[in-house]
Amino acid sequence: MKPSLVLKMGQQLTMTPQLQQAIRLLQLSTLDLQQEIQEALESNPMLERQEEGEDFDNADPLADGDELPNPGSQEIALQESSIPTVENLDDGGEWNERIPNELPVDTAWEDVYQTSASSLPSNDDEEWDFTSRTAPGESLQTHLLWQLNLAPMSNTDRLIAETLIDCINDQGYLEESLEEVLAAFDPELDIELDEIETVLRRLQHFEPAGVAARDLRECLLLQLRQLPNSTPWLVEAQRLVGDHLDLLGSRDYALLMRRLKLKEDELRQVVELIQSLNPRPGSQIEASEPEYIVPDVIVRKHNDRWLVELNQESVPRLRVNPQYAGFVRRADTSTDNTFMRNQLQEARWFIKSLQSRNETLMKVATQIVEHQRGFLEYGDEAMKPLVLHDIAEAVGMHESTISRVTTQKFMHTPRGIYELKYFFSSHVSTAEGGECSSTAIRAIIKKLVAAENAKKPLSDSKIAGLLEAQGIQVARRTVAKYRESMGIAPSSERKRLM
């Protein structure tokens, strides 16, 4: 074949840097977005934040044009559609020459505009405590080593104790056998198995109670032994845990009463004493830092109408700094002037991207509240079936956009804080030809289990029959799937004494 030049025409989907930035901001969570805004404020001198109680000077042309409205002040009733908008920059002012609204496609920010590295966090705040905000939580091993340092012990025993502590998992159990621990030591140390077992018994007296146990039986017995001798039913509880723990696990209360020679009421008190113990003692020592949820949307009822508003504290109020913007000179091609014009354009696009995110979030949240009025009024049992396609059609957007805006976004309602994804669920047909949400079915199953007879808990088949009596056609395996998703044990494990 001879080489030749061929001209072809075709269509290809491309995204401008402005669109890429808008999509990236849309899918960020509240905490990630706050970090992104902080980095933008540190790297771009054209952006500034409005502090609480501060008023901007609206006499400047930029004050009205590039200010990002306070998200929390925009309330939307379900019957209204007042979406906040951003006005364009005032055409007046000697610095404001025409800047293109979009970059050429398939280009990056760095190819056209200059960027500057973000600076380090400011240390001007005297109340900012680095240690209290960055120190990790105490781990179980750290807690045990702290107690070990207070215990008088020989160097050899201390070495054994440190090795045993390293073998304790986060739940407080010893993962390795004593033989495996012994094999890990140097033979020249001449350590015997009895020494390891003696040190282990000393560790088992440390806090939390039940730590360093090798199995559940030993863990419960260690906690029972630390209770006062005057504790009611202590002897019977030790006997039950030591000899008949398997019967308690299988809920064979009739055989337990015969073995322990106890009446039903007496056995119930013994079981309650055992249930007061902690099968995972290591969980009492929290090593991870708590994670806080910042809601993006707040829903409240006012005058019998549900109102939707953006959280005032989630996103700060931004605008272009009019003083720096006034330094930009028209027809000036110097390096400093070019840098300021580039920063000005980036600031304008960043503000518009934030505003677009707020508008999309408000539209989606409003439609969700409109669809799920029943949930807000009556709870989970009134949840309606809802999929991404329904919201996408209502707001005129693609399903992928709805998926981005509902991921890691939270709504504060009078019933609690929920992720926006929580309001989406599949449906099950009813006898009348309607549809019932899977979330509502889970709520009904949970209600049935809570009201069941403790001696004769409902099986999955029985629950399916009760749902069918209410007109909800659900198979037994579907009931089992919903029950397991809620962490509810099967009927054989829910059986208990009255």
From TrEMBL:
Q: This chain belongs to which protein, by name?
A: RNA polymerase sigma-54 factor
Q: Where is the composition biased (Acidic residues)?
A: 51-67
The annotated region (Disordered) lies at 43-73
Q: For the RNA polymerase sigma factor 54 DNA-binding domain, which residue ranges apply?
A: 338-496
Keyword annotations of the record: DNA-binding, DNA-directed RNA polymerase, Nucleotidyltransferase, Sigma factor, Transcription, Transcription regulation, Transferase
**Can you tell me which residues the record assigns to a coiled coil?**
none
Q: What does this protein do?
A: Sigma factors are initiation factors that promote the attachment of RNA polymerase to specific initiation sites and are then released.
